[in-house]
UniProtKB/TrEMBL annotation:
This is TetR/AcrR family transcriptional regulator. The keyword DNA-binding applies. The keyword Transmembrane helix does not apply. SUPFAM superfamilies: Homeodomain-like, Tetracyclin repressor-like, C-terminal domain. One of its GO terms (biological process) is negative regulation of DNA-templated transcription. GO terms for molecular function: DNA-binding transcription factor activity; transcription cis-regulatory region binding. Residues 193-241 have a biased composition (Basic and acidic residues). Residues 190-248 are annotated as: Disordered. InterPro entries: DNA-bd_HTH_TetR-type_CS, Homeodomain-like_sf, HTH-type_TetR-like_transc_reg, HTH_TetR, Tet_transcr_reg_TetR-rel_C_sf, TetR_C_32.
Length: 248
């Protein structure tokens, strides 16, 4: 095995152990034993477990940041940007659960590596730039772009942490619901959100038809109630005249 191959082997093994046990719970002996080498080999390549851990975290940091940044830049419409970014995070979690666990649970400031908080800050910076352009185009105050960027990124990131362990529903459905809340707000939630714009259009059409039927039904109900009230009023006017005089 070449030096480069050995280094990659140690990184793969370290990534798995760090995800399972954390930096503090993993020893150089365990890393060396899993790789079938002596401890000096680990020290030779990384100077110790902290050096190995730093490289693992930096790799995951750059990989996830690159995926989300590319997703934000790959769509033209702003809803599409949000959809692709949310899906990129969920795809990374599904395909790299060990890497995500390391980023979320074991970011050590003392290692000099990027933490999950700093990763989210980097992503929020990208989102802020996108939002500032959109706010300016619509005449909104772009000084609030950082606030909205942090809110959007925080919502997606926390959902991702929750989904890391539950894994239900499937990632496309999770992304659709996250975007539903972010895009429409609680007052305008779509009953059946989807990442497919054609399905959304069909659902909106169905909603429109249901709303029309409900409005027509309500109108008929009001007409019946009004007719009933008018009939009762006429009967009330007739009854006093028809009633027998009970006075002596």
């Amino acid at each position: 095995m070449t030096g480069k191959e050995r280094r990659e082997q140690l990184l793969t093994i370290g990534r798995t152990l760090f995800a399972d046990r954390g930096l503090d719970g993993t020893s150089v002996e365990e890393i060396a034993s899993a790789a079938g080498v002596s401890k000096p080999v680990v020290y030779e390549h990384f100077g110790g477990k902290e050096g190995l851990y730093a490289v693992v975290v930096d790799r995951e940091f750059e990989r996830l940041l690159g995926l989300v940044t590319d997703a934000l830049n790959s769509a033209i419409h702003y809803r599409g940007k949000l959809e692709k970014a949310a899906l990129a995070l969920l795809e990374y979690i599904e395909e790299n659960p060990d890497g995500f666990r390391i980023l979320v649970r074991d970011s050590h400031g003392g290692t000099g590596t990027g933490s999950y908080a700093s990763l989210l800050s980097e992503i929020a910076g990208e989102v802020e730039y996108v939002l500032a352009q959109e706010f300016d185009r619509h005449g909104y105050d772009d000084k609030f772009a950082p606030l909205y960027a942090q809110s959007l990124v925080g919502m997606v990131a926390l959902t991702g942490q929750w989904w890391l362990d539950v894994r239900k529903p499937r990632r496309e459905e999770v992304a659709a619901h996250v975007v539903n809340l972010a895009w429409n707000g609680l007052s305008g939630l779509e009953p059946r959100p989807s990442l497919d714009p054609r399905r959304r259009r069909r659902e909106l059409e169905r909603q429109g038809k249901r709303a029309e039927k409900a409005a027509a039904k309500a109108e008929k109900a009001e007409e019946r109630a009004a007719a009933k009230a008018e009939k009762a009023q006429r009967r009330g006017r007739r009854d006093p005249e028809a009633a027998p005089d009970a006075s002596p």
